[in-house]
Write a structure and sequence with these properties.
This protein is mainly β. The protein folds into two domains: 8-52, no CATH class; 55-137. It has helices at residues 8-16, 69-73; strands at residues 20-25, 31-32, 47-52, 55-64, 82-89, 94-99, 115-123, 130-137. The strands form two sheets. It has a five-stranded mixed barrel with strand order 4-5-6-8-7. It has a three-stranded antiparallel beta sheet with strand order 2-1-3, with helices on one face. Strand 7 (115-123) and strand 8 (130-137) form a beta hairpin. It starts with 7 loop residues before the first helix and ends in a 6-residue tail after the last strand.
């Protein structure tokens, strides 16, 4: 993946391919999602792409009733809030993403620590299709 420099652009391109990619510092081994081109821990610019597992646990969340215009266009409002959360990934790093498949009308039903799986939301916005990273509750064998 050396032909793809560490950047937000390439992170978004990987999302279109339904891959979560982070950057790992080759000096101190710190992992970042979304990727950074310079390590904020040791300030090294020696970063490399690393594919991230698509599983994690919910670390924190909020339900939002008044969001940006593109969320309103998707039908989210005071009567239909959406959920955003911090997901602790399997690799022990965190990412902020939309949480799908939860009852935003009853936030008490959304549990910190619940297992989640990645979901890629492909949106057609005219001439520039976009893919957003989201997570949804992971179905376990006991359900």
């Amino acid at each position: 993946m050396a032909e793809r420099p560490i950047s937000d652009h390439w992170f978004e391109e990987f999302l279109k391919e339904e891959k979560i990619m982070g950057s790992r510092c080759t000096a101190c081994k710190t992992l970042f999602v979304p990727p950074r081109s310079v390590c904020s821990k040791c300030y090294s610019a020696e970063m490399q792409w690393e594919e991230i597992a698509s599983k994690g646990r919910l670390a924190a969340f909020t339900c939002i009733a008044i969001g940006p215009s593109f969320m309103t266009e998707e039908g989210y409002d005071r009567k239909n809030p959406y959920c955003t959360g911090v997901v602790e990934l399997t690799e022990q790093t965190r990412v902020v993403a939309r949480i799908e498949g939860v009852d935003t009308q009853d936030p008490a039903s959304i549990k910190v620590g619940m297992p989640l799986s990645a979901k890629f939301l492909h949106r057609d916005s005219g001439d520039k299709p976009k893919t957003f990273l989201a997570f949804e509750p992971q179905i376990t064998e006991n359900e």
